[in-house]
Design brief:
By secondary structure, the protein is an all-alpha fold. The chain contains 17 helices and two strands. Among the domains are: 40 residues, no CATH class; 44 residues.
Length: 373
């Protein structure tokens, strides 16, 4: 018994010694401490001081999105930002930039009693065919310059003309009609918004300014009807990527795409939402819509509790937790999916009712039949 106690005590002692960790600085490790101190005080070579600050608004597309569709994030015709400047396939438009600059300077020169008229050979008017491509490139995340730079140049130009004119935001929003046409009364609400660059201005023009205008009342089937975002899919990629990168902005488009990715898992979901005018299919096929929302929501940090659609998320989850709603939806999908299936289900129901009536009268006649004497 004493031997067993000694063995147990020795085992407990060994376990305590194994759990005890001692940190010691031996000779030679002081060099590592010196190196760490020097690295800590060394200025970063790749990072800028503005990295991570609110003032930083020019971003690279996150690698998780680039791996899905790299070409979708690169400019094809013109570059204005620092990331794609000087690439071979964009060099031709660089020469057009100098021609446009020469025309702009000619227009702003102060000449006594004389104005520079619009030249029919002006490259601005002869390149109208390329405008849609230019507008798409100007709305790519990696192809931006700060809006205050554009505003400064625009103010200098308008000052030289010595006359009133539309604002830079108004001209930009009106130019985006080459991508998506919207009524002037809608665009007028955003002529004075403050944006960090053109992509942000485009994004803000799709966000309702009045709180609660994005939601309506409940429908009879428990779902909510909300105004769908009509922003084109190509630009939605860049807007969603910008909202992920820039912390000082709302996440309206990210909330919308995340919510839709929760609703859409198969092509039939796309067909149903399209029939209900919830989404507009500008992809071509329903499978492409499913793939788009699946890819755009991958690896996206999103807290639905901070979303403007938070109550909608909660209502949908509550609706789906009700077993009767789920069963009724399953019945409608199974038996009332098409007109023919609806007719078949109605005929079967009518036949069942008639059978029950026949059985009732048969039993009734048997029970109330006069007894033989």
């Amino acid at each position: 018994m004493e031997k067993e106690m000694k063995v147990l005590n020795n085992q407990n002692l060994e376990e305590k010694e194994a759990d005890f960790h001692d940190i010691r600085i031996v000779e030679g490790e002081s060099n590592w401490l010196t190196l760490m101190e020097r690295k800590r005080k060394q200025k970063p070579r790749l990072l800028r001081k503005s990295a991570g600050n609110i003032s930083c608004c020019l971003f690279r597309v996150p690698q998780s999105l680039v791996e899905i569709n790299e070409k979708a994030y690169q400019p094809h015709t013109v570059s204005i930002g620092p990331y794609h400047h000087g690439k071979d396939h964009l060099k031709m438009i660089q020469e057009h930039k100098w021609r446009l600059l020469d025309t702009l300077i000619a227009r702003t020169e102060n000449q006594v009693g004389k104005k520079v008229q619009n030249d029919p050979k002006d490259p601005i008017f002869n390149m109208l065919w390329v405008f849609p491509f230019l507008m798409r490139d100007l709305l790519r995340l990696e192809n931006q310059i700060p809006f205050f730079v554009l505003q400064t140049l625009f103010d200098m130009y308008m000052t030289s003309l010595d006359k009133e004119g539309p604002s830079l935001a108004q001209l930009a929003l009106d130019s985006f009609d080459y991508i998506i046409e919207r009524p002037t009364e809608v665009l007028q609400r955003y002529y004075n918004v403050k944006a960090v660059h053109l992509l942000d201005l485009f994004r803000l023009s799709f966000i309702p300014q009045s709180k609660g205008s994005n939601e309506k009342n409940y429908l009879h089937d428990g779902m909510k009807d909300f105004v769908s975002t009509t922003i084109p899919s190509a630009q939605r990629l860049h807007v969603a990527a910008f909202e992920q990168c820039y912390s000082d902005c709302s996440k309206h488009i990210t909330s919308y795409t995340t919510f839709m990715s929760c609703l859409i898992s198969k092509p039939s979901d796309v067909g149903f939402l399209s029939d209900q005018n919830v989404i507009e299919n500008d992809f071509g096929t329903d499978k492409e819509v499913v793939r788009f929302f699946s890819n755009i929501s991958k690896d996206v940090p999103f807290d639905f509790r901070l979303s403007y659609l938070f109550k909608l998320f909660e209502d949908v989850n509550e609706h789906c937790r009700n077993k009767w709603h789920v069963r009724w939806a399953d019945i409608k999908y199974t038996y009332f999916n098409t007109p023919w299936s609806s007719i078949s289900a109605l005929a079967a129901s009518l036949l069942l009712v008639l059978t029950m009536i026949q059985a009732f009268f048969a039993i009734y006649a048997y029970v109330l039949a006069p007894s033989p004497h």
